[in-house]
């Protein structure tokens, strides 16, 4: 043991990590807080990475000013990775990223795990220059630097991040092809009805959208990417390939800890109750890596900003043993593409009934229902109309009430 303080130790200095530290302090938690982050940067915000950072409008997107940590007595240890957890001893082991031989053991009273995700790679692309994923600010700055030298880009995967990257790249003057094996972008999350409107938006902005076809192979000249070959045999030339095919929860450091993981078929990640408590006493998890039990008795792992912030508040209350009311709110996330804010409120599912109630060819508003009850709202450029439905998503509301 290296005599470091106990109190709350937070693994992962991203959004969830900093928000739990902040919320503990605002709940009058006076004990030591240690925030450990594997990146070389203080906590920063990820949503701008695919938007303003790629567009060259932002270089830094820090979540806190530099003096926050000393002012709030939060010890920030960056460039360090937690490699082992021993719940029996109430300790974590950290290793320095610049010298993995340097290790230190730190004691905790409460431990919070907020280690996020790592993007999935396309097989056979390891070491091929010009192939990118996007999760960190270093990823974004490296991609942006290459965009300056490139003219043709392929984006593989039309989920939210793939769509945002395609929008930022075409706005930066590149020719962009967006490839998605599903029938439309965002189809798994929102269904093909909305997916087709997303296709329309990208096509209107000049993106070559290829749906219903996957990537067979990334083609290179041995060192640098030159394009992709699709499953239908066509080849698309590219100087840059961005891969946005989903991510995997970061849980490798839990091996041997006894902390339970959720089954892969229910989303994987760290299994938690509805307050973020893991299977081990005094250990909590939140954010993209955490799979929380829901009030309805199911489980859910969510990869969105607002959800992470809400979970950080719940965990901080739990640790600080304060039972302040956390106001109920329907799940919410957003995505910025071109000049439109796309917002999703509630829990719409691809298989729900879709009711497109407003569509001027660019902006649109749609409700989702299941068994005649409103489940969610999706809008593009309809901020006021989306937010107006919040109260209706807190109690079962017949869809007829909104359509009438
Ligand atoms: C490009 C991009 C755009 C996005 N846009 C939107 C958006 O428009 N709207 C929206 O709702 N959401 C968006 N999101 C999602 C949102 O940013 C995430 O939901 C949020 O960042 C999750 O926070 P987190 O703390 O769980 O994980 P993260 O923010 O990923 O933080 C986890 C941190 O833990 C560190 N870590 C991992 N392992 C260890 C270890 N063993 N030891 C120490 N540290 C470790 C990681 O290095 C990382 O810094 C976007 C995400 C990305 C990547």
UniProtKB/TrEMBL annotation:
<dbReference type="InterPro" id="IPR016156">
    <property type="entry name" value="FAD/NAD-linked_Rdtase_dimer_sf"/>
</dbReference>
<dbReference type="InterPro" id="IPR036188">
    <property type="entry name" value="FAD/NAD-bd_sf"/>
</dbReference>
<dbReference type="InterPro" id="IPR028202">
    <property type="entry name" value="Reductase_C"/>
</dbReference>
<feature type="domain" description="Reductase C-terminal">
    <location>
        <begin position="332"/>
        <end position="390"/>
    </location>
</feature>
<dbReference type="InterPro" id="IPR050446">
    <property type="entry name" value="FAD-oxidoreductase/Apoptosis"/>
</dbReference>
<protein>
    <submittedName>
        <fullName>FAD-dependent oxidoreductase</fullName>
    </submittedName>
</protein>
<dbReference type="Pfam" id="PF14759">
    <property type="entry name" value="Reductase_C"/>
</dbReference>
<dbReference type="InterPro" id="IPR023753">
    <property type="entry name" value="FAD/NAD-binding_dom"/>
</dbReference>
<keyword id="KW-0560">Oxidoreductase</keyword>
<feature type="domain" description="FAD/NAD(P)-binding">
    <location>
        <begin position="8"/>
        <end position="312"/>
    </location>
</feature>
<dbReference type="Pfam" id="PF07992">
    <property type="entry name" value="Pyr_redox_2"/>
</dbReference>
<keyword id="KW-0274">FAD</keyword>
<keyword id="KW-0285">Flavoprotein</keyword>
């Amino acid at each position: 043991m290296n005599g470091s303080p106990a109190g709350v130790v937070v693994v992962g200095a991203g959004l969830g990590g900093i928000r739990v530290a902040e919320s503990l302090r605002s709940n009058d938690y006076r004990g030591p807080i240690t925030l450990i982050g594997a990146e070389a940067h203080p906590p920063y915000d990820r949503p701008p990475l695919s938007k303003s950072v790629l567009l060259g409008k932002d270089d830094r997107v820090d979540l806190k000013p530099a003096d926050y940590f000393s002012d709030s007595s939060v010890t920030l240890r960056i460039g360090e990775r937690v490699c082992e957890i021993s719940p029996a001893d109430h300790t974590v082991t950290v290793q320095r990223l610049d010298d993995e031989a340097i290790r230190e053991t730190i004691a905790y009273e409460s431990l919070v795990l907020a280690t996020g995700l790592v993007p999935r790679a396309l097989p056979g692309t390891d070491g091929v220059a010009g192939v990118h994923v996007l999760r960190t600010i270093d990823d974004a700055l490296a991609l942006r630097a290459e965009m300056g030298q490139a003219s043709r880009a392929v984006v593989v995967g039309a989920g939210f991040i793939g769509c945002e990257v395609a929008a930022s790249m075409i706005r930066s003057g590149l020719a962009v092809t967006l490839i998605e094996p599903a029938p439309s972008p965002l189809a798994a999350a929102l269904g093909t009805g909305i997916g087709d409107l997303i296709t329309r938006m990208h096509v209107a902005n000049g993106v070559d959208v290829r749906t219903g076809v996957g990537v067979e192979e990334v083609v290179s000249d041995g060192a640098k990417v030159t394009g992709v070959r699709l499953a239908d045999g066509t080849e698309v030339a590219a100087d840059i390939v961005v891969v946005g095919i989903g991510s995997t929860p970061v849980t490798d450091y839990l091996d041997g800890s006894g902390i339970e993981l959720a089954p892969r078929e229910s989303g994987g990640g760290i299994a938690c109750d509805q307050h973020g408590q893991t299977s081990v006493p005094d250990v909590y998890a939140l954010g993209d890596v955490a799979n929380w039990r829901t009030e309805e008795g199911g489980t859910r792992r969510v990869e969105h900003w607002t959800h992470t912030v809400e979970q950080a508040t719940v965990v901080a209350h739990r640790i600080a043993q304060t039972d302040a009311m956390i106001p109920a709110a329907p799940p919410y996330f957003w995505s910025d593409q071109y000049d439109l804010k796309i917002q999703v409120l509630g829990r719409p599912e691809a298989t729900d009934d879709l009711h497109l109630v407003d569509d001027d060819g660019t902006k649109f508003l749609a409700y989702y229902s299941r068994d005649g009850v409103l489940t969610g709202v999706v809008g593009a450029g309809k901020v006021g109309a989306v937010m107006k439905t919040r109260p209706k998503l807190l109690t079962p509301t017949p869809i007829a009430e909104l359509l009438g």
